[in-house]
Automatic annotation (TrEMBL):
Pfam families linked: ADH_N (PF08240), ADH_zinc_N (PF00107)
Domain of life: Eukaryota
Source lineage: Eukaryota, Viridiplantae, Streptophyta, Embryophyta, Tracheophyta
Keyword Metal-binding in record: yes
Name recorded for this polypeptide: Enoyl reductase (ER) domain-containing protein
Amino acid sequence: MGKRGDGGEENMAAWLVGVNNLKIQPFKLPPLGPHDVRVRMKAVGICGSDVHYLKTMRCAHFVVKEPMVIGHECAGVIEEVGSEVASLVAGDRVALEPGISCMRCKHCKGGRYNLCPEMKFFATPPVHGSLANQIIHPADLCFKLPDNVSLEEGAMCEPLSVGIHACRRAVVGPETSVLIMGAGPIGLVTMLSARAFGSPRIIVVDIDDHRLSVAKSLGADGVVKVSTNNQDVDEEVTKIQYAMGTEIDVSFDCAGFSKTMSTALNATRAGGKVCLVGMGHNELTIPLTPASAREVDVIGIFRYKDTWPLCLEFLRTGKIDVKPLITHRYGFSQKEVEEAFEMSASGSTAIKVMFNL
């Protein structure tokens, strides 16, 4: 049986039990440790990685081998705090950072805890996720929401953190012209982050008219529609550079295909940077030698580190507005969970699908 909360009800969660098979079942919580909090989930978003797990039981080199609770973009309300927790109290609204690092390895000690080999990350096998009525989490990974930031916005801190970490890695600032390849959720949060970091000009590229219109409505200075044909790269690079109207300092590939990375490398100025954001295809065929001869730096990112305070500050001050990204909302029933994942996987008009628990 699932652990019972203060209300006496059974704790339930959305379990991934097989390909295209999600079931709401009891979820027994571990004991509350002295530095932990028990959180009642209120908002949980669906990420592309969640959909990958549902469709294939794997995402990159992470493979689901036994039933796992899904979900990692989340916010909720504190129900109980551990004996040593002084920073939070019951009733606080919090956004949760989903990764628990070891804090002992060289990466953690060096300040790059996102690279920790022992990372325990929500809904990354074999660690259970957060699409549940309640979960237990370390208090130091729960960030109190400002009064004017909603729980849904709190859940959006997770994808927004990817964009903020990418902009930090690429050193985006008020003199940085930015190209973004891909207008999906991660491309859009990277665009919003680049603007918040001061980028004066941002061009967004995609194959889909609707996504480009969303990028434009969210503040892109220009958009360029491209094809999936590799033969079009040179012609499209010319169009992208013309749309930018100045040299491209930093390009973010938020799609992860050979073509998008090739376009980014060719379009970026000598001495500029190209950042591969998110989990692209495992093997890419790209023109690395010409880019190297122009001293274009290629950088990668993996998740994020120490981003929640800045996310919440951007949301609090209105420098970033993530509300338009939330396009679909569902409750927490078996039928709605299935429908929500279908909508998220459909590739239609959905940007961010959110559960309200």
